[in-house]
Structure formats: structure tokens, C-alpha cells
Fold each of these.
Amino acid sequence: MGFWLPDWQYMVYVALPGLLIGLWAQARVHSAFRRASQIRSRRGLTGAQAAQSILDAAGIRDVEVEPTSGFLTDHYHPLEKRLRLSEENYRGDSLAAVGIAAHESGHAIQHGHGYFPLMLRSALVPVCQVGSSLAWIAVAIGIALVASQHVFGKPVVLVGILLYAAMFLFTLITLPVEYNASSRALATLVENGIVSQDEIPEVRRVLDAAALTYVAAAVTALLHLVYVILLYNRHRDD
């Protein structure tokens, strides 16, 4: 069986669960964001102003806060030291905008303080970029070689498995990075008087929903890793 032609087991145990988990996580994010985006923060700060206030309070002076296009495209770029907020969150003064801005500021603070999981995740980015493109190709070619009893079959499959393992490791390391950023965000918002205590539950709902997307990514990556290992075991004696 070619890996590029998934069998029913792949569809039932990997593709479909991954799709459903991803859709569920995205639905939670959109629902929480829509709700919080309709609630204006009492301080009236925009996401950009909230992010800048948090960075200033943390002593982070070399990070630029700037808008970027798209919906929920907010991110912190450690190499460029730029905190990019989607237009809606950059200019908006809702609890959703403030919460997401605070979360991305948490990543900038992690970077400034040399938070090890963030450094490790950044180091794995090039491997995952290559792995996402080549892992399934390596497994497919390797299994074809194993089926033809070629000596390089098993090593090629193992390379693919290692790439899948690296991608899973990346998603696993991402979890503490994201949860720590959210934890920093919630604490900093209150400490700096950007939101009040009674506004925190709504902000937390947005951040918790966003974190589910990373949990979904980790589960999906694990499903793929387990599947290719089982696939390898099925063909290793061919």
C-alpha cells in the first residue's frame, strides 16, 4: 500500500479524528472571540496600547507592535522582535483584543527572559518546516522500498518516522509555551490595571479556547506518529 493512498484505517483513526478535533477547537475559538469582542474593556485601551503598556512594564524596549492583515493572525516573531496584531485586535478595545494582545506580549516577555521552552521551540521550527513537507514522502518511499526488499527501505521509513516525531515534539513543547504566555498575560493585565478582576473570566475564556487549538495540533501530530509507526511495523518483515 502506498502511503499517499491512505487506507480506511488512516481515514478512520487519523484523518477523521484530526479533522473533527481541529474543527471543534476552531469553533470554540471563534465562539469565545465573538463573545468577548462585543465587550468593551473598561479602560478603553486598544490591543496595541495594551501590548505596549505590558511591554513597557516588563522593561521590554526593543519589540515593535504593529498591525497585520487577516483574522486572528496575531503572533510574536522572535527573530524580528515584532509583535503583530490583526487589524481588529490592533485597533479594537474589546476584551478579546486586549486579551490576545496580552498573550502575544507574554511571548515577547518569554523571549526577553530567555524562557527555555520558547527557545527550544524556535530551534525546532526549521526541522518542522522540512518535516511537514518530507515526512510522508519519506514514509511512502521507504515502504515502497521495503515492499521491493530494497536495503534502504527501512532506514528511509525511519527517517520519516523521526520527522513525524520531531513535529509531535514541536507541538508538545508548544503547549507549555502557550499556557505560560496566557498565564503571564492574565497576571500582567491585572497587575497593570489594564482590566479589572471581574473582566478576567471573559479574557480567560478567549485564551483557554485559543489554547485548545494547540492541544488539537498535538493530538493530531500524535495520531500521525502512531500511525506511521504501526505502518512501519506492518511492513518491516516484508
Amino acid sequence: MKDRQIKKRVSSIDVARLAGVSQSSVSRTFTPNGSISEKTKNKVLAAAERLGYHPNFIAKSLIQQSTKLIAIVMVRFENPFYSIVLGRFTQKLEKIGYSTLIWNITHAREIEQTLPMALQYQVEGIIITSATLSSKMVDSCVQSGTAVVLFNRYTSGGNVDAVYCDSVRGGRIVADALLDSGHKRIALVLGEEGSSTSRDRETGFTEGLQERGHELWARTRGDYSFESGYEAAKEILGKNKKPDAIFCANDLMALGVLDYARGKLGIRVPENLSIVGFDDIPMASWPGYSLTTFRQPIDKLVDATIERLLTAMKSPGADTVIKKIQGTLIQRGSSKPVRTLDH
């Protein structure tokens, strides 16, 4: 078998020569909304196809001093909620001419090592999900002139642009719903320590209970995974006197609780135990689960995040903007019927 010959990379000069046009005409052909006649454009495209030419994105970005790259930093790829979020971001950014650079980190602490690498790629903006920024990293981004927006979380100091679902209100709505349906012994399964989403859901939920004269029956913590919900159910439901309702800080943990309660203990849901989640991932609506949950409006959150990022990219140094988006309680079969509140 003969060795394959390594062909010389086709350049824009080669295309221009074959098409009989200038090199700048080739450049304008492959520039969105470039000023070029249809006749010249067709000649360039025909020559490019014949030669197998592909524009050099990196070289072009260096010339234009614009990479059109947006970095997305994400921790929990295995969580269906964030998988959907990632898909929405890449689709919507592509429609407006931006490419995405995805950073998959295994733990939120790794963001301190990840962001400097992202900045080396000359990204024009950074969207951070499932993690928060230290003040040191905020300063680094500011000095580099790179816009940063936190998605579905915020910093305690409010010093970074952020778009998030109002989890405090969401937790309060879930508390009211469970109390309105007659529950007395209500347990809570939290997410990771230090997570602003888990903290807010706990705050809204416990305050909602206390305002109506109730305290938590039991409280434990998971890590937002199905497995941690399953283990949390072992702990909470292993007691002699069991709760009659469990609120989980996300849907995956709620599905773990649901599977353990029904599959291992034979508990009738919702007759003897109501289970409520948070997010409204696709699996929540599956007939086998039919999970009552608080829906986060993904499209609204993603659109608002992109809008804020583009604004920050155009106006560096502008005042910080923190935007709250409201969600909705979705009643399904895993909880007793509740009174639906206006949203």
C-alpha cells in the first residue's frame, strides 16, 4: 500500500488565482454580510469547491482582532438540565455568528485553573454555569477586557453579571403547595454545599414553612445526582416515622428518591408520600415518573444571558446587572393535588 501523499494546504491566493479575482474578494466571500457581487461570489465559491478550500478561521480572527468565540464553562454535563442548556446556548450563539468553546470541568474548584486557559484563546465572552467566580478571577477577567456572565447562579457580592431563576420564590411556592395539600411531615434534600441554587431553594422553602407555623421534618444533602437522591431516600425513609412529603433541590435527586421509595420500600406515591423536584427535565414528564416539579424557563434564561453577554462585550466596564427570571410549578402525579398559584 502506497503512502498517502500529503497535499499542500490550499490558500486564499490559490482560490483567487483560479477564480480570476483578488484575494480580498475571496475574503469578502467568506465574511458574513460581506460586500461582494453575486457573480464574483459564485466564481469564488466554485473555485473553492474545486480546490477543496476552507477559510482559516484563526488567521482571519487575528487579522480582524475578533475571534467570535464564546467560552461556556460547565460542571455537571451528566445533568439533563445542563445538557439542554448547553444545546440551547450553542444553537442560539451560532445563529448570531459566534462559535463556542466548551470547558467541561469535574468540580467547581477547577474553574480557577480553567478560566486562565479560556482567556488564552482570546474568547470574547465567558458564560459560567454550575460554578461561581472568586474575586481574584473576576479581576483577571476585568483586566483582560473579557465579559463574563453567570448562568443560573450569582456571587454573594453581586460583582459579576448574572441571570438566574428565582429559586427563593420557587422554594416558597413548593412549600405552600405541599402545605395546601395537607402535608405535615415535610423533608428536604439539598444540593451541594456552597451552591447558590441549593441555598436559595432551601431559604425559600424553609421560610415558606415557618411563616405558616411548620418546621422541616428532616433535612439531608446530596450532590444533584440521581445516586445521591437514592442514598438520601435511604436515610430519610429509613426512620420509623417517615415524612409524608419530600422536596428535592433538583429533579435528578427527586427521581432517585422516587425510585427508592416505590421500588425498595413499596411506598405508594402520592397516596402515602408526595415527592417534588426542581428544574423540569424531560424525564420528569415520563409516565413512569410523572414528577411534580418547579420548572426553570430555560429559553428565557438562555436568551437573557446571551443578551446580557453581548451588551457587556460592547460596553466593557458598565454597571453590573443581576437579572431574576420567574419559574412555574408543574403539577404531576408524584404529589397530591395542589392549589396552583399565579405566576
Amino acid sequence: MARFLNRRKGGSGLKPGSLVHIGEKKVDNIRITVMQYDRNRLVEKEVAHFTEAYEMVNQDTLTWINVIGLHDTELISKIGKLLKVDNLLLEDILNTGHRPKSIIGEGMIAFIVKLLSFDKTEGKISSDQLSILAGDHYLVTFHERIGGHLEPVRERIRNSRNRERIIYPDYLAYAILDCVVDMYMDIATDIGDSVDQLEDEIIHNPTRQTPGNIYRHRTELSYLRKILLPMKELTLDFYRTQSNLVRGDTRPFISDLSDHIIITHEVTETYYTMVADQREIYQANLSNRSNEIMQILTVFAAFFIPLTFLVGIYGMNFENMPELEWEYGYLFFWILLVGVSVGLTIYFKKKKWF
């Protein structure tokens, strides 16, 4: 499946807000898990229906509901009605190729982001979409598949000493985004290490695989840039919003998150430029090597053209060739060949052709 733009199978021509899952079905059955907690108490469970999870929401605790699987459009529609979410936003949640975005209002904060993983063996980035809906005393996340991307956040919740701030929906949303951005930074670092190794390969020992490696790094960095650019907008919107759901105590953390995104984006841009330079260096080295080969072949040709000319003359079958009857004719011929070769060598040296 194309990573830069998903094909809209069955979604073309429908009216805005039509709920159609666009993307790959990554789980067979929808799973719904719940974490309900306050400063002193934590309840973790898996429920069969979203309604059961939503009924757990109350004023005394924060309820984190996690929905795994996006292919059940009827379920997503029911969730939207319970949470009073506009169908246009639900449509974006179901479109797994959607760019990262934020929708922040008085009653709800919504984010659509990408969970990225980097396969160091293949050198390829894979992604899943994560959508976040945060309201008063609850937060709902939508995953494409089961994964451990947000496990660090869950571990912080399980540790009661870390719940002082994370009991608020805006801070939990920040913590999830911070975990996502940390993944981006790790991936940028891993690709950067690979780019540095590629530079040594290009300069000292280029192989037939080198052009493919350059193209692969350029493609992955292009994809990472595609994700990071709207993430900068998302974090800035999160920081600047006047929504009553975002507390003043959380804003410094959001500002720090925005700085991390900017740093990661700048690093990615630097590596992208480096890969472009590496491509030019590789092509220049290839051109220089071709020139060196042509120079060597030209020098060989320059040596053998006059020698071939002389051999051609004395290889003719004319009867009146005095040198053929001369006692020292054969020696003279070799002295002539060596003399021509030495003369050409001296001439090429003076011209600095080799």
C-alpha cells in the first residue's frame, strides 16, 4: 500500500462525512480496553462494547478508552454519537492515510497522528494511525492494530507516584503525543546513523548497492518529513489554544513538546540535504572514475597508433624495401619502436597527462 497517499476504495463520490474505512484492515476483531484511575486507584479491563466503557466515565476519575481496529464503521458511528463528534472528524479518523491534524474546541480536543516504527534491517519506516479524542474526564484513542507504542505512558499510569499530573485529559494527551514524538526522534537518529555510514561507503568503497541505498534513505527521509511538518502545526495549535480543556499547568510541557518536534524536523532536514549531497558526490565520483578509465584507454591508444602504423608499413609485401635485406633491419625496427614509445612517454609526462 502506498504510504504517501492511500487509495480511496469505495470512498470516491460520497458526500462529506460519509464513514468509509480507507486503508488496510489490520485486526480481525475490534478490541476495547479501559484504564480508569485517579491519584490512588487504578482499574484496567477489557470490555465487549464501547457503551460499557463510556458508562465508566465520571467526574472523580480519568477514563482512558482504547479502541483497537478501525474497520467497523458502525461502531465508529456509535462512538461518534455518544461523544457528540462530528462526522467529518470521524471520516478523518477512518482515513488511515490522513495527514496529522488537530481540532481543538471548548468541549473536545482531537488529534490525528502517526505511530512510526523503523526496521533497521530493511531500513524502512512503517506507520499506523493513532487518533485521540479528549473530553471532560475521558480520553479515547483509536489504533489500527495492537501495539506497544504507548506502553511507556501506561507504565507511568500504573506507577501511582506518576499520576499527579496525568490524571487530567490534556496532560494525558500531551503524554501520548510526547511518546509519539520520542519515537520520531529515535527514528531520525537511527536513519542519521545509517546516512553517516553511507557517506563513508560512498567516499571509500562504493558498490553496486550504493545507488539503491541512497534512494532508500531519500525515500524514508521524505516520508518522515511528510509526517513532521504537520506535527509542528499540531503542537503549536495545542499550545496556543484557548480551550478550557487545556490548563495553564500543561502549557510549559506542550511548549517543550513543540521544541522537540522542531528539533527533530531540523535534524531530518539536515539528513535529507546530506543524502542529496551524497547523491551528487556519488555521481561526481562515478563521472571521475569514468574519466580516469577513458584517460587510460586514450593513453594506450596513443601509444599503439604509431606503433601499429610502423608495423603496418613493414608488414606490406612490396619487393623493393631495403630494410628487409639489411643485416640490422630487425634491430633497427625494434629501436624505432622503443624510441617512439619513449618519446611519447616523455611528451605525455611534460603535458601531465599521467
Amino acid sequence: MNNYRLLPVYVVAFFSLTAHAASDVAPVSNILYKNDCSACHMAYQPGLLPARSWQKIMNNLADHFGENAELDDTDRKAIMDYAMQNAADTSSFKRSKSIMKSLSSNDTPLRISETKYIKRKHRELSNKHVKDNPKVKSLSRCEACHTKADTGSYSEREINIPGFGRWDD
């Protein structure tokens, strides 16, 4: 039984707003997307890239960053629809909006780490923190340092760099 039915509407609304405020991007809510994408890497939230990027990524799965990630047409379409409907340019979440502000209208980044916003947010990190760190290796491994990345939260308070500890700006 859904316990929310027992709560007054304003209490449910408060919890929804609180959950929204705690996340920087909408958490992944599509099980097909989550299962298929996380088979090889973190299921990146669609709100980290604009729809035009997701469309380009999903239309080239035969060469998905050097790997063949092809899906049957039904699954590919369902995942692409989900990604595009929840992309940064359709999102009301704060980090998604910031990512969009950092892009020009003709930018179509294929990697989240290629966006100006993400580059700027990570500018203080050295190779020893990322590239030369065997537990991180790349900015594409968000979950290596962002302890709540899977929930859509990328707060600086939740950063723990393997081998270095909590990030203190």
C-alpha cells in the first residue's frame, strides 16, 4: 500500500520539493535506461547533456566511444525517447540549467566532461587526483568521487576523492 495516501497533500508536496532541491539533476527513473547503460558505465542522468547530444549518441551505438553498444530498435527508441525527454534543455534542475548556459546553441558535446560547465567545475583538480589516480582515471567516472552521483546529487559536500579524501574547496 502506498503510504503517501495517508499523508496530507501539503506534506507529500514538501517531500517532493525537498527531494528536488537535494538533487542537482533528475535521478534516472527509467529501468531500461538504467539497466542497459549501467551494464558498462554509470547510467548518466540525461540532464547532464542536451537532447541533441543524446540523439547523436543514441544514433551511433555501433561505435559508442570505441565499443559496440547496439540495441534492438525498440529498446534504442525507448532509451532515446527517455534521454531526450529528460535532457538538460528540458530540465528544471539547477545543474542541468547551468550546463545549458555553458553551451552555445551549436554545441553538441558527446561527453559530459567536454561541457564548459563540467570543465570549469573540475579546473582545480590535477592529474594526480584524476588521470593518474587508479581509482578514478577519468572525469567520466563521476561516481568515483561524487558519492551520491547515482541519485543526481553532485554537491561539493559529497565529494570524496579516492586516496585524497573529502574535497575541501
